Amino acid sequence: MDHRTRQPAHEYELEVLPGLEHVAETELAAVPLARDLRGLRFWYPGDPERLTRLRSAVAAYRVRAWDVPRPRGLLGHQQLGELTDFLRGVIAQGGHTSFRLGAAGKESGVMQRLAEELQAGLNLPHHPTEGELLIRLRPQQDGPGWEVLARLTPRPLSARAWRVCNREGGLNATLAYATHKLAGQRDVDRIFNPMCGSGTLMIERDLLGPSDALVGVDLDQGAVDCARANIQAAGRTLEVARIDALHTGLPARSFDLIVADLPWGDAIGTHGGNAALYPAFLQEMHRLISRQGRLAVITHEIRLFEGLLRDQTAWAARELLQVYSGGHHPKVYLLNRR
Ligand SMILES: C[S@@+](CC[C@H](N)C(=O)[O-])C[C@H]1O[C@@H](n2cnc3c(N)ncnc32)[C@H](O)[C@@H]1O
């Protein structure tokens, strides 16, 4: 037997953007030793560091349930000792320097007592809004008690270490990962990321593995600078240029995969602008894509985009997913040349 399988297993749960569950389940299924998978919940005896490298999850939590009818029961001497030990195990791995509680009614007297007890027991400051160790309490999902979820990492997994420059309209990195997984990953792909913004789609693709080419463009010099800073922080070498995606001057059929997070109409661009931009974009990408190529589009302008798809015959299109992210419900589509 592998020695690692004899380590005590803990139960874990992944948190994902609504709509990315199946992508996360697929990624989780590839984690060696993860077992008894029930959706995003599972047992795992291995090094939790492996779970902090999951790219489709917003966060990973260690979970434990207590047989108490309400949170007050966690203040009992034995329960508090067990809870403190449980949290110490997570802190030993994650190096958190403060904590906070996440629960309905966290302002209540019981929760405040719990925070005080944990502050003393863990010797860690309680920061109600910024605390690094997020401790969530909720009724047990498959029993009568209460369960505690402790986030493994001080920051969400979606807050990538490479993101040193953030821009309004920046894509959630877990959605960028999911888009690439569903659009398909081939070493021989020549990839284009028009309207690259802060570079999320480019960086997440490059971290997945090799490609034949990977270039991004954006009209905005601030976006180009931002993407370059993030690419450098990621330790990658990728080309980004300040060019209009609709007038690149590149020859026809230059790319096998084009991935684009189009202006969404509120934060960036205007609806009037998008009504002209979107059809021009589809036309120019049709020229730039290879015969067997794929075009993945992320957009919140669903009515506009689906109307355009209905009125054209150049592309075969299907919806890959719809996600809830940052107050929006963008969709991801995959298009092929007809
Ligand atoms: C939704 S944002 C992309 C955000 C990006 N995915 C990120 O994670 O930061 C759309 C971007 O399209 C750019 N843009 C709009 N029209 C463009 C055009 N014709 N050519 C190139 N970039 C354009 C904007 O400057 C903006 O950075």
Automatic annotation (TrEMBL):
<feature type="domain" description="Ribosomal RNA large subunit methyltransferase K/L-like methyltransferase">
    <location>
        <begin position="160"/>
        <end position="330"/>
    </location>
</feature>
<dbReference type="GO" id="GO:0008168">
    <property type="term" value="F:methyltransferase activity"/>
</dbReference>
<dbReference type="InterPro" id="IPR000241">
    <property type="entry name" value="RlmKL-like_Mtase"/>
</dbReference>
<dbReference type="Pfam" id="PF01170">
    <property type="entry name" value="UPF0020"/>
</dbReference>
<dbReference type="GO" id="GO:0032259">
    <property type="term" value="P:methylation"/>
</dbReference>
<keyword id="KW-0808">Transferase</keyword>
<protein>
    <submittedName>
        <fullName>RNA methyltransferase</fullName>
    </submittedName>
</protein>
<dbReference type="InterPro" id="IPR029063">
    <property type="entry name" value="SAM-dependent_MTases_sf"/>
</dbReference>
<keyword id="KW-0489">Methyltransferase</keyword>
